[in-house]
Amino acid sequence: MYVIGFPLLLGPLVTLHELGHLLVGRWFGVKAEAFSVGFGKELAGFTDRHGTRWKLSALPLGGYVQFQGDMNPASVPDPDAPKEEGSFQHAALWKRALIVAAGPVTNLLVAIAILAAFLAIQGKPVYIDSDEAVTVAYFSEGSTAQAAGMAVGDEILAVDGAPTPTFEQLVQRIALYPGERVTITVRRDGSELALPVTIGRQNTDDGFGNKGDRGVIGVGPAPNELEYEWEPVPLLQTIPLAVEQSGKLVDMMVTGIKQILVGQRSVKELGGPLKIGKVAGERLSLGPSAFIEFAALISLNLAFINFLPIPALDGGHLMFYAAEAIRRKPVGPRATEWAYRTGIALVLTLMVVVTVNDLFSLPLFGS
Fold first, then answer.
1. What pLDDT, in 10s, does the model give residues 256-268?
2. Which residues are part of the catalytic machinery?
3. 3-state SS record for the chain
């Protein structure tokens, strides 16, 4: 499943990402010299009538479009390339920005389309007995909420001011912040109380050996508050709801990165291509729905990562174009060269870190 899941997941997502770049580029008259799925030595390929070399390369960890005027597959501008018609560097600034943004935007649209399709087919869960508050029915052993003064019968209204009308939303809100101190608003005997609670930390396992930390406060709801039914979603509402879901997922990604940067989460939680391949195989073993849902998450991740303002990524190119728009002239070749070298070094360092994490998460190393 690992061997099948990896190319079945990343192959189409990377290809669609690069097709976004290519098609918008062709729309603006920019010529593409190469379109590759994977990096390194070409295994097979052909040249189309536009002069673009389509190829399958040996290292299946991504892909690229190399436009006319690019120095390399990372789309670093070649200072010696003539700015002729059809060259990427010859295109207007706004056109270059749209060509670069087209890749991650395509991944974003793919994620939204998948989520919208699930909503159209399955509908959305609606809790049968919900009064816009979670009633505490019991506490687990070592509950941090109970230690903070929460009592059975309290109605949980919000966490740090954010409403939590269902137990699922409460769990989602708490899970992101293990070890942090939050203010939980409860209603008791008709009065509202603000209780400072330190969120506990629980190590989780998804059944496949993938472990992680999540926040818990050790409360359980009344059984009737866990009952829900699937409600059909009108077709015109699927896209807005899918956009809302995507926004929540991106917010979780941003929160996770912040926590890693400040030391609240371990860098070991970062995963790379091997981990993606492992989880893709596991989701594939659970059935098409689980696999496609995971594909939406990875597509959203690709969009998010590529929009980061790191030279050599799409966001880095957009950062240079923003500087060019402000300065009314391109950034100097020396500054551009050093920025891209730094960006590539950063990306390679990150790849080494996540690959080491991936290797030590495999059963081969006794994890």
1. 888 888 877 777 7
2. 18
3. CHHHHHHHHHHHHHHHHHHHHHHHHHHCCCCEEEEEEEEEEEEEEEECCCCCEEEEEEEEEEEEEEECCECCCCCCECCCCCCCCCCHHHCCHHHHHHHHHHHHHHHHHHHHHHHHHHHHHHCEEEECCCCCCEEEEEECCCCHHHHCCCCCCCEEEEECCEECCCHHHHHHHHHCCCCCEEEEEEEECCEEEEEEEECEEEEEECCCCCEEEEEECCEEECHHHHCEEEECCCHHHHHHHHHHHHHHHHHHHHHHHHHHHCCCCCHHHCCCHHHHHHHHHHHHHHCHHHHHHHHHHHHHHHHHHHCCCCCCCHHHHHHHHHHHHHHCCCCCHHHHHHHHHHHHHHHHHHHHHHHHHHHHCCHHHCC
